[in-house]
Prior knowledge:
Blueprint lengths: L3 E8 L3 E10 L2 E11 L2 H8 L4 H20 L4 E6 L1 H5 L3 H12 L2 E4 L2 H14 L8 E6 L4 E7 L3 E8 L3 H8 L7 H15 L9 E5 L1 H10 L2 E2 L1 H13 L2 H5 L6 H21 L3 E3 L4 H16 L1
Parallel strand pairs: 1-4, 4-5, 6-9, 9-11
Antiparallel strand pairs: 1-2, 2-3, 6-7, 7-8, 10-11
Helix pairs in contact: 2-4, 5-12, 6-11, 7-11, 8-11, 9-11
Amino acid sequence: MQPVKVAIVDVGSNSVRLLVASVGKRGLKQLHRDRVYVRLGDDAYTFGRISRTKLEETREVAERFAGTARKKGADRLETIVTAPGRQSSNSAELIEALSDATQASVVVLGADDEGRLAWEGAVARMDDPAETVAVVDLGGGSCEVAVGSPDRGPTWVRSVDAGALRVTRAFLGGDPPSRKSLERARREIPALLGRLDPPTPDAALAVGGTARAAGRIIGRRFGPEQLGELAKLLSKAPAIRVTKPHGITNERAETLLGGTLVLAAVAERLECELEVGRGGLREGAALALARPSLAAA
Length: 297
């Protein structure tokens, strides 16, 4: 069976990302990645819609990514849109711009679909999955938590509007933020999580930019205590001073405190340490996109 080359353009609240991968019977192999911070969430949360400027910027990035994917030999290409497609009043304009730019299908993922794909992509790249695995997919606009087993897939999936960018913009002004802002964020995040009450897993993975950045600073496994220490560091000094030695971008540094506070709160509810996952939403979407071609081979 010949592997299938697929490409995913992932349009989120913080960034637009590209994954080109080869998918075969031995799993998924990454061929190329790229990322551009566009921050669609800033428009969506402030104005309820995406501005013409942001739409055009996103269209240009998607067009370039589609061209790159085809040069890399992608047999199939799909654009997935996460929170901006669910939280913007003019999401139809975004879909039209992306469809025109990529000349390929565009899918706005429902929150449950996003959680399930992130779970599949993360668990697929585990060397030895536990009997039950939780995957926490923290993006800019929302946070998905999915729990399941490798043989049955995710059986418990929830999504909350507690993304790193959303929390930062809503509660954490200043760099570092004031004590009052930090206290408010700590009060409000549990309210955003609401009745999020996941079953306790045997292992838990955290995926997304916040998790990867936190892992660079405090190690690939962390619980509420380690995340709390990181939040303390980020609350006492400009974020770039903490993150620059670890090669973290300025854009990620800006939202890292908010994301860290959310991860800490979710880890408490899971009653389990989190490990940074090697796969996630884009890998799950790539596996799903390749599946029909592999089945027909």
